[in-house]
Amino acid sequence: MDYLNKLSNPNGPIHNAVDLIQKLPITNRLTDMYKRSSKNELYFVGAATFITLYNLTSYIQEKRQKLNLPPTVPFGLPFLGHGLYLLFMPKTFLDWCNNRYGEVYNLKARGKIFTVTNGTCGEESLKADRDDLSLDHGLVRDTLYFHYVFEPRILEVGTEITTRVAKIAVASSTMPRYVSGIQKGLEAAQAYLLKEKVNVLDHPSPFFQRFVSFMSVPTLLGEEFASNIEVIESFASFTGDIIRNIPVFMLVPTFLHRPLLPYIQSPKKHHAIMEKHISPVVRQRREIMRLAKEAGEDHGFEQTFLQGLIEYTDADTNEYKYSDKEVAHGVLMLAFVSAHTTSTNLSYCIYWLLARPDLMERMMAEIESVAPGNTPIDVEVLNKMTFLNNFMREVLRQGASNLGVGKKAMEDFTFSNGYQVPKGRMVESSTRQLNFGTNSIRSEVEEMDPDMSKNRIATTPARDYISFGRFFATQEIKMSLIYLLRNFDIKTVNGKKPTPMKRIAGTRITNIDNLRNICLARKMFVSSCCSTEMGLEARGKRQDADMTTNEDESNNVSTKFNYRIGPLKRSRALVKD
Questions:
Q1: Most buried among 8, 245, 527, 535, by the most CB within 10 A?
Q2: Which residues span the membrane (predicted)?
């Protein structure tokens, strides 16, 4: 009550302050200006004042940091920053910034400042130690939001342990022993996903995720999972569940993320599947390993990726570092990296071949020349396919975003040119510029040239974990392309050339179909695919003998996978038996 009495006292401090402000000359001038101004003039003055205060605040914050900060590109709008330039003219804008401000500069978007690197400093950003510039915090947490899906120890499996295991399990020297498993996975995928004579893929992205999972699961986890459809489907769909939620998290304020989780994500479903199938295998293998150790014998398990996680021990206690449940959850991190990255780039390869018939012709000619007919595919055959190798590398280089590989500065970081970024700042690399020299060069579909790749490596996050499986992924993609092109005529239903890659604000958009309705027709049955506005129809007569042969082959392949499944969305077949 005493406080309220002081407020109501006409001689109180608040009343005195108000009286003082009212007596100032500037107060009368502002009041007169307000009365004389129109509504539009007031809007203009208010906007100008807001922009001035906004920029003044940013300027004061930068000056308070005693660092040699990179230059900030001007002409940014409040909140939007440079977002409109990145949205409508990313290549031209970034090339202008690179030429004007050098290898390190700051941009603003979505109310935040981030640093862009290119050239030598861009390479430094990619190669920086994770304790300085962290891809884990920049991409895994702040972009993919994996910390909402996994516990901290599981994130450790994905960001640290997988790199160490990968150096043994999927090193370049181990690729020959994966050929057989990948080939079996291709045959299983074809038997399950491409049963019909003519298959139309209404949604290519989920199809390629499932297609790749048939190869990845048995080779990375073990043969006992080769026919486990539930694990294979979880491997494939987990990727889509993660990617679909990213736009929601980007638009919604951070403090509302946690309350939204029960409504937009389904990680528990995938966790339950992995616990159901992976955990028993982990316990069983560890028991066999214990008995083998007591007997002084080798356990005999193949050194797959899963086996590496099972055997991983703590250096201090010499005991298994992760429980069977944690290993099962950690497998989902592997699922995202393998299924998402490989399926995305495999689909891009298909899109590029459809968009450029001349490249398709060269690809088919090399396959027929190096591996005619049903010549078995091995590493030696793959190494002879120089055009396939250059095409793969060019697709990877073309697939780089204008800005990508976001990392967060864990400490104040200094580049070789003397510029510094403060702790907590996001650092983006101009990855397309690192691949081609500028963002604009060879950016049109007609300019895509595999011969220009010259066997150069595409930009990757270097020493970080995202690139740990690049040898295995490229081998999967190459073998998949050969298998699909050998056995299927691949066309678009409407006959139009697709856009190979989609970008928004200069960033490559994954898990979104660049086109709908791809036709895969078995070559032994359909000589050509023709499309109409209503859909695709197969032309030509089918011989009874060929039909019988194909059905027998399909049945023989299918009997190798003795499992039952529930209703799943399969490729829609337009030619019925």
A1: 245
A2: 42-60, 72-90
Nearest to 224 by CA among 469, 563, 476: 563
Q: Confirm if 390 and 453 have CB atoms less than 8 A apart.
A: yes
Boundaries of every domain in the chain: 139-573
Q: CB-based contacts of 411: which residues, under 8 Å, 6+ apart?
A: 131, 132, 423
In the numeric block, which tokens belong to residue 387? Answer: 């055009």
Place of tokens 């736009």: 247
The answer to whether 349 and 391 are in contact (CB under 8 A) is yes
At 72, list the tokens: 């900030």
Structural class in CATH, domain 139-573? mainly alpha
Q: Look at the block and give the residue holding tokens 């005493």.
A: 2
Enter the tokens of residue 540: 């030509």
CA 480 – CA 357 distance, rounded (Å): 19
Check residue 506 and give its pLDDT. 52
SS3 40: helix
- 3-class DSSP assignment, residue 89: coil
In DSSP terms, 562 is beta-bridged to none
Contacts of 386 (CB under 8 A, 6+ apart): 366
Q: For residues 522 and 199, what is the distance between their CA atoms, to the nearest angstrom?
A: 9
User: What was the pLDDT predicted at 11?
Assistant: 60
CA distances from 150 to 40, 156, 270, 339 (A): 52, 10, 11, 18
Q: Which long-range contacts (CB under 8 A, 24 or more apart) does 64-68 make?
A: 65/422, 67/412, 67/420, 67/421, 67/422, 68/414, 68/418, 68/419, 68/420
Beta bridge partners of 108: 113
Answer for the pair 117, 104: CB distance below 8 angstroms, yes or no.
Answer: yes
Which pLDDT does position 391 carry in this prediction? 94
Task: Give the β-pairing of 112-117 and 503-504.
Answer: unpaired
Q: Give the number of other Cβ atoms within 10 Å of residue 9's Cβ.
A: 12
The closest of 102, 130, 105, 127 to 115, measured between CA atoms, is 105
d(CA 413, CA 424): 10
- Average pLDDT along the chain, 577 residues, taken 10 residues at a time: 56 64 68 71 73 64 75 84 87 92 91 90 90 84 82 77 78 87 93 90 88 92 90 88 81 81 79 93 93 90 88 79 88 83 90 93 95 90 94 88 86 94 92 83 83 66 52 92 93 83 59 62 52 33 35 36 32 32
Buried b (16+ CB within 10 A) or exposed e, 501-518: bebebbbbebbebbbebb
Q: CB-based burial of residue 240 (10 Å sphere; 0-12 exposed, 13-18 middle, 19+ buried)?
A: middle
Instruction: Write out the H or E segment, with its range, that includes residue 95.
Output: helix 90-101
d(CA 404, CA 427) in angstroms, rounded, equals 9
- Secondary structure tally for the chain: helices H, strands E: 24, 15
Token pair belonging to 58? 């940013």
Distance CA 451, CA 264 (A): 44
Bridge partners, residue 428, by sequence = 116
Residues with Cβ within 8 Å of residue 184, at least 6 apart in sequence: 218, 226
Task: Give the number of other Cβ atoms within 10 Å of residue 421's Cβ.
Answer: 29
Predicted confidence at residue 561, as pLDDT, reads 34
